[in-house]
Amino acid sequence: MKSKDCVIVIFFYSVLIISSKASKNCNYTKLEEDSVTFELLYKSPEKMKDIKWKHEQSNTIVARRNKGQISNVWGEIAENGSLNIKQIKRNYNGSFTVDAYDEFGSLLLKATTILCVYEKILKPAVNFTCAKGRPKLTCEFKNNKELTIIWRKDGKEFRRGTSDQEQVIKTENGKYQCTVSNPAHNDTSKEITTDCSTNESDKLFGFDFWVMLALLAGGGGLVILLIILLITCAWQRCKQQEKRQQDIQELRLNHLQNPPPYDDQRSKQTARGQPAPPLPLDEADDYINNPAEVLLQTQTKTKGQGRGRPPPPPIDEDEEPPPLPQPRKKAPRARKSQEPRSLQQ
User: Fold this and answer.
1) Are 288 and 295 in contact (CB under 8 A)?
2) Which residue among 51, 92, 251, 259 has the highest number of C-beta atoms inside a 10 angstrom radius?
């Protein structure tokens, strides 16, 4: 075996050993939409006439350069044989293998590199609930692949673990934050302050007992005041009705004890000496059935009307109207010139 072939074989096996160890971890850790360059270190890159990069998981020839002919699918091959990918996609995650040959078709280099692609982490949020006077914290986030959660209390880290173990914790009151991270990115939530010092026995419908008691007492006092006002108004109305009924009863008793004739209760004549008009039939019937009520209404109307001008006397059609006044006639005066003549005669 020639010395040159021995060097190639030794280099080939060393690359396989290094790549086998590296296959357990990611050689490149990137986020989606980032760029990456797979460096190919070879002392004599000008001897590589045929270079081929392949994605093992999809069996895709990513890029190839063969004796001046270039084929770029996912990236571009540089002069030294390195592969440049400008925009990484999620399906690029996996192993990339490169094969390099000389002009005679002899293998110069074979290597494998691993690319790990991760999503960008969205900002998490911390929420808490109280259980038996202690806060129960939950770190909420959307990404869930190979995540690490770091809990901080008052700005200092106090717990760390995977997303399955440390997403929900029970601890003491204080100021808390959670940081969610993956190998390519991390983000931290806003700081919150927990206060679960109030005992659960002092809660009423989930709120503080004394606060709820004060609200209920204030509302109950208002309801009681409204009830008192309603009762007072109803009592006054009943009193007024009782007094009215009592007045009616007294008038009825007076009427029964001293029943005046119906014609005597009304004026026989008007103010001008004419006979008073008869009472309407409706009022007469009411008076016969319930004289006390009619008298009470009559007194009420009389008090309200006061002393008004009496109505004019009715006109009797059979009576002749009085004669109209005539002007007074003057007696004739005697002439003065005639009196002396009579005396002389």
Assistant:
1) no
2) 51
Residue 266 to residue 278: CA distance in whole angstroms: 9
CA 71 to chain centre: 60
Classify strands 28-31 and 107-118 as parallel, antiparallel or unpaired: parallel
Burial 248-263 (b: 16+ CB within 10 A, else e): eeebbeeeeeeeeeee
Residues of the chain falling short of pLDDT 50: 1-24, 262-265, 268, 271, 281, 306, 336-345
In this structure, what are the phi and psi dihedrals at residue 178, rounded to the nearest 5 degrees? -130, 140
| DSSP letter assigned to residue 200 | G
Could you read off the pLDDT of 317-338 as tens digits, one per residue? Answer: 555 666 766 666 665 555 544 4
Phi, psi of 252, rounded to the nearest 5 degrees: -65, -40
Tokens of 82: 């390195």
Taking Cα atoms as reference points, which of 31, 180, 25, 194 lies closest to residue 119?
Answer: 31
Question: What is the C-alpha radius of gyration for the chain, rounded to an integer number of angstroms?
Answer: 61
Q: Which strands form 36-38's sheet, in the order they lie side by side? A: 36-38, 83-85, 76-77
Task: Compute the distance between CA of residue 48 and CA of residue 297 in angstroms, rounded to an integer.
Answer: 130
Exposure on the CB side of residue 234, measured as CA atoms within 13 A: 6
Q: How far apart are CA 311 and CA 272, in angstroms?
A: 9
Q: What is the pLDDT of residues 245-287, one digit of tens each?
A: 888 888 877 777 776 554 444 554 554 555 555 555 455 555 5
In 67-174, the DSSP E strands lie at 69-72, 76-77, 83-85, 94-101, 107-118, 125-131, 134-140, 148-153, 156-162, 168-170
